[in-house]
C-alpha cells in the first residue's frame, strides 16, 4: 500500500514538473508576440498618403523584426479627423495621419498654417516644417497625450464650387464654402466675401451633393481622389493655403514600445515622409488634366485678384498673429526669409 502511495506521489511530481517545463517553454513565445497598432486616416486607397501609410506599416514591421505590426484603416473608417484625434489622445487609437486643424483652438500655433499665402512653394513649407519651429509644434502636443512623429506631407489648397466660375475676388461673394474646423480659416474666407462654414470632412461630399454647400477648398489631388467632380463644376487654382498633415502616435501606445522600437518607428516615419511628399507632388502634376477630363472647368486666379485677396485677409493675419504669439509668428517668417535668401 505504501509502495503504491509513493508511486502515485511520484507520478504527480513528474506531471507537475512536466507542466512547469511546458509553461517555461511557452513563456518566451508569449513574450515575443507582436505589438499591434491601429493607424487611422481619412484618405482613399489611391491617395498618396494612403499609399505612404501602407509603406510605413511595412517599414516598421521590417525595422522591428516583426515585433511591431501596424494595421492601417483608411477612408475615415475610424471616423473623421476630429474623432480620430480624440481617440489617439485617449489611447483607443494608436496612430493618426491627417491635418491638425481640429485641435487648432487648443494649440494656437497650429493656426499659422491657415495664414493665406504663408508659403509660396512646397520646398518652403518643408523647410519650416522640418526645422525647429515645426518640431516645436509637434513636441508641444505632449500635454495632449500625443507623440508627434513627423510632418508627413502636405499640399496647397484650391477652391471649387457648383454655381459659377470664380475668376475674381468679387466672384466669391456669397458662396457658401466649407472650410476646415479652424477659426483662422473661417475668418479668412469670410474676409474674402464668402460665407464660410466649418464642417467635419466626412460630411462634406453629402452636403455638396444636396447643394447644402456651394463649394469647398482642398488640394486638387484630394478633389480627384474623392470624386468631387461628381458634385462640383468649377475649379479655381489659387494655392491660397498650404495644409500640412502630421503623423502622430498616442502617448499610451508610444510608451508601450522599447527605446529601440521607438527609434525604429521614428526613423521609418522620417523615411516615409520623404516618399509621401514626392508622391503627392507626382500626383498633383497629373491630376488637374484628369479633373478637366471628368468635366470640371478649370481656371487660374489672376495675380491682380490674388493681390486683392491678400489685402483683404491681411487684417485677419495681423489679429491672429497676436493671438497665436507674435514671437512665434516672427520666427516662422524669419525661417522663410532665410530659406528664400539661400534659394536665390
Look at the structure and name the CATH superfamily.
Answer: Bacterial extracellular solute-binding protein, family 7
How big is the Rg? 26 Å
Task: Determine and state the CATH class.
Answer: Alpha Beta
Low-pLDDT residue spans = 1-6, 16-30
Query: Helix share of residues?
Result: 40-55%
CATH topology term: D-Maltodextrin-Binding Protein, domain 2
Q: In sequence order, what are the helices and strands, one letter per element?
A: HEHEHEHHEEHEHEHEHHEHH
Structural class: alpha/beta
Characterise the protein shown here.
The chain is α/β, with parallel strands linked by helices and 344 residues long. The protein has one domain (34-343): D-Maltodextrin-Binding Protein, domain 2, CATH 3.40.190.170. It contains twelve helices and nine strands. Strands 1, 2, 3, 4, 5, 6, 7, 8 and 9 form a nine-stranded mixed sheet that branches. Strand 1 (35-40), helix 2 and strand 2 form a beta-alpha-beta unit. Helix 2 (48-63) runs antiparallel to helix 10 and helix 6 packs antiparallel against helix 11 (303-324). The longest helix has 35 residues, at 259-293. The chain is globular and about 65 Å long. The model is unreliable at 1-6 and 16-30 (pLDDT under 50).
Short description:
With 344 residues, the protein is α/β, with parallel strands linked by helices. It has helices spanning 2-31, 48-63, 81-90, 122-129, 132-139, 183-191, 204-209, 220-225, 251-255, 259-293, 303-324, 326-343, and strands spanning 35-40, 68-73, 95-98, 146-161, 176-179, 195-198, 215-218, 234-250, 297-300.
